[in-house]
Design a protein that fits this description.
This protein has a single domain, classed as STAS domain (Transcription Regulator spoIIAA), CATH 3.30.750. The longest helix is centred in the middle third of the chain and has 16 residues. 31% of the residues are buried. β3, α2 and β4 form a beta-alpha-beta unit. With 129 residues, it is α/β, with parallel strands linked by helices. It has a 6-stranded mixed sheet with strand order 5-4-3-2-1-6. It is built from 4 helices and 6 strands.
Length: 129
């Protein structure tokens, strides 16, 4: 059964969440929890990497918009690394690509290059380390 995996990487003040799998009504609460945990910490930008997302529905889009607003309210930035073409098409069709900060790959020298990943515990499961 397809699912969702979220890994977090810290790099200085910025945090990258590498999202893999499907983001839909069933798995969005897990991503929501991961985003809330990261935004609850002091820090810089939150980078959400969608390059390994195989499916994204309106639940996932709404989640990213809400957390973009929450980040902005806290003086932080949410940056979305574009997903595969079929995922990115949703952002284009809805116009969200014009409202969210979107990049083709994580910022150079950012968390993706500077730290070891660890999987955030999802749905009460222990983290893989």
């Amino acid at each position: 059964m397809p699912g969702l995996k979220v890994e977090t990487r810290n790099g200085g003040r910025d945090v990258l969440l590498a999202v893999q799998g499907e983001v839909d009504m069933a798995t969005a609460p897990d991503l929501d929890t991961a985003l809330e945990r990261v935004l609850a910490r002091d820090g810089g930008s939150l980078i959400v990497d969608l390059r390994d997302v195989s499916f994204l529905d309106s639940t996932g889009l709404a989640l990213l918009v809400r957390h973009d607003r929450n980040a902005a309210t806290g003086g932080r930035h949410l940056i979305v690394v574009k997903g595969p073409p079929h995922v990115q098409q949703l952002f284009e069709l809805t116009g969200l690509s014009k409202h969210l900060a979107m990049v083709d790959k994580p910022p150079q020298g950012g968390p993706a290059q500077n730290s070891e990943p660890h999987t955030l515990p999802l749905a009460g499961k222990p983290a893989n380390r």
